[in-house]
């Protein structure tokens, strides 16, 4: 019967195809990251930290239609992503594949997981995003005119200085005089009690192309034997249980740093640095109660 308003044939009602589900198939995806192609399986993507998935797919990832095409034509899926460094993604996916292979081969880790840990392996994901701003002196302060080319080269100099600062915890400026109850000292203690060392360096640190931004990432396996707290105390809260609060729920810490200055061609420039840390725990060998990518 035609509709009175449009005089168009009504479309027949077709029942939804429930034969395809996220849990039944594990299609291969061709992932384009700034021109570099990665072939990954869906389950590999789902094992990655939530914060990484949000960068890769800021609008989400719907697979219903593509899974149907995969089942009928057996062809890989193709997606394009932007604004993610391919070297960082390559490091992350390689690390997770290595850990997954060790789980499947039943290779002994640094320390076996605690009985109450909801998986076979925990991976700590730590990421730092830096944005820096170079401020030329005011006319009253400067006796030399600042040219745009001077500002651009000063930014290059600052970027190199920041790239050379590879020690993870130096920017927190935690020392013996830092109060024990400070958030920075608690953060360093928690990470060192789970496998980090105070002199650790970022595994990968790179500048975003054509931007005054630097991204750093490091991954570390959760070492249950590194917890130096009074684990025999029944009231003690183990570090791994604190980290479980960040499982699929990344935590962020943001602060400004204005202590940096630089000189170029006799002109002093002030530098403001904005740092954002992202901390998240990924658990391998666990059953996800809900999809991480929607």
What does the secondary structure layout of this molecule look like, with pairings?
Layout: E1 28-33, E2 36-41, H1 42-46, H2 50-56, H3 64-73, E3 77-81, H4 86-104, E4 121-135, H5 148-164, H6 183-192, E5 204-207, E6 213-221, H7 239-243, E7 251-264, E8 267-284
Parallel strand pairs: 1-3
Antiparallel strand pairs: 1-2, 4-6, 4-8, 5-6, 7-8
Quick recap:
This is Phosphatase activator. The chain is an alpha+beta fold. The protein has 7 helices and 8 strands; from the N terminus they run E-E-H-H-H-E-H-E-H-H-E-E-H-E-E.
Structure description:
InterPro entries: SKP1/BTB/POZ_sf. This protein is α+β, with helices and mostly antiparallel strands and 294 residues long. The protein has two domains: 28-104, no CATH class; 123-284, no CATH class. The chain has seven helices and eight strands, in the order E-E-H-H-H-E-H-E-H-H-E-E-H-E-E. It has helices spanning 42-46, 50-56, 64-73, 86-104, 148-164, 183-192, 239-243; strands at residues 28-33, 36-41, 77-81, 121-135, 204-207, 213-221, 251-264, 267-284. The strands form two sheets. The protein has a five-stranded antiparallel beta sheet with strand order 5-6-4-8-7. The longest helix is centred in the N-terminal third of the chain and has 19 residues, at 86-104. Residues 2-17 and 289-294 have low confidence and may be disordered.
């Amino acid at each position: 019967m035609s509709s009175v308003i449009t005089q168009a044939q009504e479309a027949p009602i077709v029942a939804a195809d429930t034969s395809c589900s996220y849990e039944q198939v594990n299609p291969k995806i061709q992932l384009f990251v700034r021109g570099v192609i990665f072939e990954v399986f869906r389950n590999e993507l789902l094992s990655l930290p939530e914060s990484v998935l949000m960068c890769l797919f800021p609008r989400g990832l719907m697979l219903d239609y593509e899974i149907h095409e995969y089942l009928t034509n057996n062809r890989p899926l193709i997606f394009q992503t932007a604004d993610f460094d391919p070297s960082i993604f390559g490091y992350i996916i390689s690390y997770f594949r290595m850990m997954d292979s060790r789980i499947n081969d039943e290779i002994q880790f640094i320390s076996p997981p605690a009985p109450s840990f909801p998986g076979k392996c925990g991976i700590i994901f730590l990421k730092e995003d830096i944005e820096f701003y170079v401020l030329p002196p005011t006319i009253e302060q400067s006796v030399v005119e600042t040219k745009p080319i001077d500002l651009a080269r000063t930014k290059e100099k600052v970027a190199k200085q920041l790239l050379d600062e590879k020690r993870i915890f130096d920017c927190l400026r935690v020392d013996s005089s830092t109060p024990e109850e400070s958030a920075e000292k608690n953060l360093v203690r928690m990470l060192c009690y789970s496998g980090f060392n105070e002199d650790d360096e970022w595994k990968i640190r790179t500048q975003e192309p054509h931007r005054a931004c630097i991204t750093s990432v490091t991954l570390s396996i959760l070492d249950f034997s590194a917890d130096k707290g009074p684990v025999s105390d029944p009231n003690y809260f183990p570090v791994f249980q604190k980290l479980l609060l960040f499982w699929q729920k990344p935590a962020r810490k943001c602060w400004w740093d204005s202590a940096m200055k630089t000189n170029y061609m006799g002109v002093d420039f002030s530098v403001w640095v904005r740092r954002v840390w992202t901390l998240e725990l990924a658990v391998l060998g666990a059953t996800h109660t809900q999809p991480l990518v929607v």
